[in-house]
Design brief:
The chain is mainly beta. It is built from eight helices and 42 strands. The strands form eleven sheets. It has a six-stranded mixed sheet, with helices on both faces. Strands 11-42-41-40 form a four-stranded antiparallel sheet, with no helix packed on it. Strands 12-13-14-15 form a four-stranded antiparallel sheet, with no helix packed on it. The C terminus is likely disordered. This is Pyrrolo-quinoline quinone repeat domain-containing protein.
C-alpha cells in the first residue's frame, strides 16, 4: 500500500501531465467533431499523449494497483488507446507485487483473417476482470466490451479509467449490471485549471443497451467472417423468419422460439459465399438467389421446391417481384469475358425466363428495384452504370453511366464506381436514387435518364438509399448516415456511427434504424439525426432488422449469420451526447 503522501504526489503529477499534455482547445488545434465536421472551438482530452510517456504511465499503474492490488484481477480493454494502457499496467504489475498479471484486449470488430479473433489474449477464468480505458464519456466503449464478455459467459468486476466526464448517476447501465466505476479523476478536478466541469448532472441517463432485450438467438453453421458485406436480410411472414447463410443453407425459423422449421441446402458455390441474396415472400412462396447460380422458389410452409431457375453462374442479387405482371427480377453474374452481368425476368409460377438482358460488361451484384407505377425495373452493375428497363418485355429505356470503366476494370469485372446495392424511387419528384462505391449519390430523372443532382460523401457506399418524406437517407463506408434534401440535394444532417456502415437504413415506426461494424444497432430521429435508443451485439451488423408488428418483436441479423429475436424494453427515448463536447470514449 502506498503512503498517503506518495499517493497524492503521484496523483498531482499525473494531473499536471493531463493538464499540460492531454488537454487540447479547439482554437489551439482544430479537431473533427462527432458529426464529422472540423471545429475550432470546444476542447478534448488526448490522453494517449500521456499514457505513452513512461513517468505518467508509471503513476497510472501505481494508482491502478493501489485500488486492485491483491484482488487477483486480469486487465482488459478495447482497441486502440486501451492497448497501451493494458500493456503498461501489466508490465508494471511485478513491480507492484502482482506477479503473473495478464491482460487482453477486445477488437472493435472480429479480425477477418488469421485466427479470426474477437479477443486478443487469453481470458483467464480464474481471475476477476477489470476493464480499463483512458476516459469514460457516454460509456459505449465499455458497454461494447461488456456485451462481448457476457457472450463468453464472463462479467467484469469493475471498470477503471483515468478521467470520468459525468457524474456516476449518469451511468445507469453499469449500476443495473452491478459494475462499479472507478476513476482517478473527474472533470470537476480540472475546474480551476482548465475550466471543465462534470457533464449531465441533471440530465437523464442515456438510453441503456437494454433498449432491447434478447428473447432468443440463432446462429447458422460455418459463417464466413472474411466477407464483411451485406448478406441475406431476414424476411418475415406471420409465424416464421427466413434467411440465407454463407454455408449455402436457407433457414426457416419459428419466430416464437428460434427453432428450425425447415432448411434447404443449395448447390455447389464458392466457399463462404452461399446465399447473400435476401429472400422475398409472396402468397406462401419464398424466393431467393444463390451463389450456385440458381434462383429458388420454395414452399414457405414445408421448404419443398416449387421450381429452380438455372440462369447464371453466380447470383448475389436479391429478387424484386411484380405480382401484377407475374414476374420476378434478379441480377445475374457470369464467368464470360466482358459479358459478366445481366438481369432476368422469371415467371413467378414456373421459373421460366420471360426476358433477359446479358450485355453488362461487369458483374451485376446489385438488386433490382421494380417501379410499380410505371411498370419499369432499374438495376446497377459493377461497371458503375444504372439500367432502366420496360418490366414487361425487357426493352432498355436508358443507361446512366457514372463513369466509363477502364479496360482493366472491364477485364476484372469490378470498377471503382461499382453500384453494389439497390435503388430508391421518389415518386413525388420522379427521381431514381442510388449510390456507388466511389462515394456519390445520384438523383436521376426517371423519364429521361438525365442527372438532376449529385451528393458526394467522404468515402464509398455499399447500401441502398431510403426515401422518406422529403429526404433520402443513405449510409456510407465513411461511417456516416446522411440525410439529404430531395429538393436541393444538400445535406440536412449527418450521424457518425464510429464504425463503417454496410447496412442500409430502414424505417420502423417512424424511426430510422441503422446497424454498423461496431455491432451497434441505433434508432435515430429522422428529423434531427439524434439517437433515440441503441442495441449492442457482439458481431458486425451489415444488414437491416425487421419487425413483426403483430408481436412487436424485432429480428436483428449479424454478418456472422446470427439472428437475434429482440423485444423492446420500456425506456424513455432521449438524446445522448451534447455536440459541443469531445472525448476519446464514445
Amino acid at each position: 500500500m502506498m503512503k498517503p503522501a506518495e499517493r497524492e504526489e503521484r496523483r498531482a503529477r499525473l494531473k499536471r501531465a493531463i493538464e499540460t499534455l492531454a488537454f487540447v482547445r479547439g482554437d489551439e488545434a482544430p479537431h473533427v467533431s462527432r458529426s464529422g465536421k472540423f471545429r475550432e472551438s470546444g476542447w478534448l482530452f488526448d490522453i494517449r499523449n500521456v499514457i505513452l510517456r513512461s513517468e505518467a504511465l508509471d503513476d497510472s499503474a501505481a494508482l491502478f494497483w493501489e485500488t486492485f492490488g491483491g484482488k487477483n484481477v486480469q486487465i482488459g480493454s478495447i482497441e486502440s488507446a486501451g492497448i497501451a494502457l493494458v500493456s503498461g499496467l501489466v508490465a508494471h504489475a511485478a513491480h507492484r507485487g502482482e506477479p503473473g498479471a495478464s491482460g487482453f484486449y477486445i477488437r472493435k470488430s472480429r479480425k477477418k483473417d488469421g485466427l479470426l479473433k474477437m479477443v486478443e489474449g487469453d481470458i483467464d477464468p480464474r481471475k476477476k476482470i477489470v476493464l480499463v480505458d483512458d476516459v469514460i464519456n457516454s460509456g459505449k466503449s465499455f458497454m461494447r466490451q461488456i456485451e462481448v464478455l457476457e457472450s463468453l459467459g464472463r462479467k467484469p468486476e469493475a471498470v477503471w479509467m483515468l478521467v470520468r466526464f459525468r457524474d456516476t448517476a449518469y451511468y445507469e447501465y453499469f449500476r443495473e449490471k452491478g459494475i462499479p466505476i472507478h476513476s482517478v479523476f473527474e472533470l470537476d478536478d480540472f475546474k480551476d485549471t482548465l475550466g471543465t466541469k462534470n457533464l449531465a448532472k441533471k440530465e437523464p441517463p442515456p438510453p441503456p443497451r437494454q433498449a432491447f432485450y434478447p428473447v432468443w438467438k440463432f446462429a447458422s453453421e460455418k459463417p464466413s467472417y472474411q466477407h464483411v458485406v451485406p448478406k441475406s436480410d431476414p424476411a418475415l411472414d406471420e409465424k416464421r423468419v427466413y434467411m440465407g447463410s454463407d454455408a449455402g443453407v436457407f433457414w426457416a425459423l419459428e419466430q416464437s422460439d428460434g427453432s428450425i422449421a425447415w432448411s434447404y441446402k443449395v448447390g455447389l458455390h464458392p466457399k463462404g459465399k452461399g446465399i447473400f441474396s435476401s429472400p422475398v415472400l409472396h402468397e406462401g412462396i419464398v424466393y431467393f438467389g444463390a451463389y450456385d447460380g440458381n434462383v429458388y422458389a420454395l414452399d414457405a410452409e414445408t421448404g419443398k421446391k416449387k421450381w429452380v431457375s438455372f440462369e447464371a453462374d453466380w447470383i448475389g442479387s436479391s429478387p424484386a417481384l411484380a405480382p401484377e405482371l407475374g414476374l420476378l427480377f434478379i441480377g445475374l453474374e457470369y464467368g464470360l469475358w466482358r459479358k459478366r452481368g445481366g438481369i432476368a425476368a422469371l415467371d413467378m409460377k414456373t421459373g421460366k425466363t420471360v426476358w433477359a438482358y446479358r450485355d453488362m460488361p461487369t458483374y451485376t451484384h446489385s438488386s433490382p428495384l421494380y417501379i410499380e407505377k410505371h411498370w419499369q425495373v432499374v438495376i446497377g452493375s459493377n461497371d458503375g452504370a444504372a439500367y432502366l428497363f420496360d418490366a414487361n418485355n425487357g426493352t432498355l429505356l436508358w443507361k446512366f453511366e457514372t463513369r466509363l470503366p477502364t479496360e482493366k476494370e472491364l477485364d476484372s469485372g469490378f470498377s471503382a464506381h461499382d453500384i453494389k446495392e439497390s435503388f430508391a424511387y421518389d415518386a413525388k419528384r420522379d427521381l431514381v436514387v442510388f449510390a456507388n462505391a466511389k462515394g456519390f449519390v445520384f438523383f436521376v430523372d426517371r423519364t429521361s435518364g438525365k442527372e438532376r443532382g449529385m451528393f458526394a460523401a467522404e468515402f464509398g457506399f455499399y447500401s441502398t438509399p431510403l426515401v422518406y418524406e422529403n429526404s433520402v437517407f443513405v449510409s456510407s463506408l465513411d461511417k456516416h448516415l446522411y440525410c439529404i434534401d430531395l429538393d436541393t440535394f444538400q445535406e440536412k444532417w449527418r450521424w457518425l456511427s464510429g464504425a463503417r456502415i454496410f447496412a442500409s437504413p430502414t424505417l420502423i415506426d417512424g424511426s430510422i434504424y441503422i446497424g454498423s461494424n461496431s455491432g451497434r444497432l441505433t434508432e435515430i430521429d429522422p428529423a434531427t439525426g439524434e439517437e433515440r435508443s441503441f442495441l449492442t451485439l457482439t458481431e458486425r451488423i451489415t444488414n437491416k432488422p425487421v419487425k413483426n408488428q403483430k408481436t412487436q418483436r424485432f429480428f436483428v441479423p449479424t454478418y456472422a449469420n446470427e439472428i437475434y429475436c429482440m423485444e423492446r424494453a420500456n425506456i424513455p427515448s432521449v438524446s445522448e451526447m451534447p455536440l459541443n463536447v469531445e472525448g476519446a470514449d464514445t
